[in-house]
Structures
1.
Amino acid sequence: MKLETERHVCLMVALLMSLMSGTMYAFGAFETELKSHMNWSQTDIQLMGVAMHVGTYLMKPFCGAILDSCGPKVAACVAACLSLVGYGVVSACVAHTTMGSVPLMAAMFFLVSLILIHVVRKHIILTD
């Protein structure tokens, strides 16, 4: 029964990580809604997209070292914490349009892109 439970947990973690790693690819699906809701220009929206890409590509060289030194469990926990903070602030900014600024949102999308998902999802295991 323990093996069955571990498999279900692994499946759920893998699904959540896959959903989060698709943010960069799904950005185009919600950028128009974000643009109209926040009354931002296309340049503002593109700044957030660029921040997301820069965060992803800057982190790639460090992902292997983090995984080697800390292991996949720690890296996944760090990724979850960064995602929670980043998406939480983005959600709060969208819900309260007065507190949402372009630099803050760009910084949060940058933070979300640092989630190590592109490496962690390939190496996640339940036991070290």
2.
Amino acid sequence: MASKELKKIFFKRDSGQTLVEFALVIPIFILIVLGTFEVARILFTIHGLDVSARGGARAGIVELDDATAVTVATAAAREILGDFNLDNADTAVTAEIVQVQNADAVRVTVTRTFNFIFTNAYLSDRGSFQLFPTNIPLTTRVTMRKEG
């Protein structure tokens, strides 16, 4: 008698309730996981742009000649971008000599178009309305002043 009551308690017929709940939850879970990957990629890209701009400005500021400072700063920024695997046609590096508080400074600007994987692969070409962007421009600018 007790075993029949236990079977009724633990082995109820759900008639597909679990399958329906799974079908409702799994798309949301997949979106969260893919969104986490996209956020990690964009943070990595922003970090790479920041490090390359800072490294380029640092390399350019130690040069005594203004003409070579721009060349050295651009080359150093490109080299660091290569270390992050970000140096391609989507990335633009500019360096210039500017005046900051009556002293020469090197300003390095790094710009890159960030392409989302998920929205480009699955949500592009779905008509004129787009809920999610397919790419966004990222820009970082670092200015370092010559001391002394």
3.
Amino acid sequence: MKHWLRSLTALASILVLASVFVGQLARDASAEANQEKNQISEEIGQAEVWQGAGELNYWLESDASIEPDFGGVWIADNGRIQVGLIETRDSSARSREVILNIAADMRISEGVDVVPVQFSWTTLNQTRDAIRELQHKYIDYGNGVWPIQMGIKTDLNKVQVDIPADESKFTDGHHAVLSEIEKHYKNQVFFETYSAPAVYQSECNPWYCDSPIRGGVGLKKTSSGSGDIDCTAGFIVKGVASEKRFILTAGHCDFTSSKTWKTHTLNYSEKYIGGVIYSGHNLMNFDPSDRVDAMLIYIDQVSPPPPPNGNGWQTWPGIFKRSGTLWLDPFTPPPSQEERYSITGSAPVIAPTVYNSIVGEKVCTSGARTGGWPWPNDPHGGSCGKVKEVGKWLPVEYKPDLSTTYVYETLVHRAALCTRRGDSGGPVYDDNNKAKGIISSSGAPNGATVFDDYNPTHVCNDLKYFTPMNVIMNKYSTQSSGLTFVLW
């Protein structure tokens, strides 16, 4: 009897323990579910904060009335949106009211703090850009020379300047830049060091690149088929007065100056760029007695436009430099691959001529059509070669259709390079990050009367002609539209 009671008691204890265990499991599961729900809610809430901060920043940057007082927007470690405000100006109270009203209209005012700062967002941007210009002036970075990096730390209300940690990487140019910063900008900056240069992840395929738009990518008229490359972007330039951004390419690509232009991204999605919207911007149309094979495509998407024209471009002062497959002579090996090769200016004029190239110097090019040529046994990619002739007035045939032929005479230099149809307008540059010109035309060797894209002796020879950079810039500044631009 006692044995039976002990067994019954033990069984009851087991059932109680099982009940407790099951209950604990249920509570644990419930707590885990609640924790997951809370985490999801926090993530959703944080995403809303990020979106709200971005939209608030857009509206505040767009409001000119607060521009002198506005110090930028950032998100604090506690997740709250911070808006910087210079509080020492007569207009500060009014600017604070504008900020809070915009936040209230967005229904996010309870999550926004207005905090005091010393420098305006405009001042920080101007300081960063000024230091960048100092670098362009004093430091010829690349080819083993490490750059100075600069960006805005909005939460610290400063410009962050990154310098090489290894002082052996400093050149006289680095010291000159740091001296200028000390003289003019020391209160607006702070310094950090870096131990290795930044490297880019892949953002280009053989023909096209993601944003930022750059020289060397394929260009297409919006009326062209999906498989066509009409021309190649040369360099990104900026109007001195307007600060608008343009793509410099060959003028014969669009004689009518009425076409709009597009390109593709890395995944081959079509993306709109803009048009040759000013008749004076195509130098082939301006002066029949003194034609220059160049035109400017206006990049009207630097700020994101509404659909269907895409989601906007960033612009960047450089080119897509493709590696190549062919040595044109023992002293001009093909270029190495750099998806962002900085262009820091135009090569200087060689006195007493008006040309910025000399016979025998090395130049390179990176055309989109040859760069993406699909047959690996044929020449493809970028190429380098020597300048063979300068200041050549070259009559070139242009056929807008099968029944019409025009002959235009343009001023060019001749070089040994590799190009195909579709490379027109592509960048011609040197090893010192300088722009030399843009591809204009090609001759066919051995007495051939028709250029053959499939014939390697036509693709690579010393009958490649490019329009000199300084001729282009001088002509734009003196022609009727008076457009003065700089390589940007």
4.
Amino acid sequence: MPKYSYHEHEGLFSVMYGKLGETFYFIFRILLGFLFFAHGAQKLFGWYGGQANTLTSLMGVAGIIEFVGGLALLLGFWTRLAALGSALLMVIAYVMVHAPDGFIPLVNKGELAVLYFIAFLIVLHHGAGRASLEKALFKKELF
């Protein structure tokens, strides 16, 4: 019986992902972190066409979590902790803001909250990956 390498039984995408998977995940984490950071900056500072909110308001607290969580994801520092807090925020946002207008995300305009929630679950599972500030400082992931 001939011996095959692991990748000979897989499709082209599996081979490519096997070689580039860490790079894809790094790009995913950086973009996710920047976009969530930008949402927080909108709420806190009025950047990117947003309106600044007071820190003690509900939108202000959401902005703090988005700003800090996005920055943590972007830098790869306490990544899983940031993903957990951000995922919980998206659940709260969906229940408080979107669900009262119906359960279906396309109807209640909650698609972004659902997509962010799913993305944060992926980060919660995979952690920081490569190029992490936390790993550079502590040689391992603490959270």
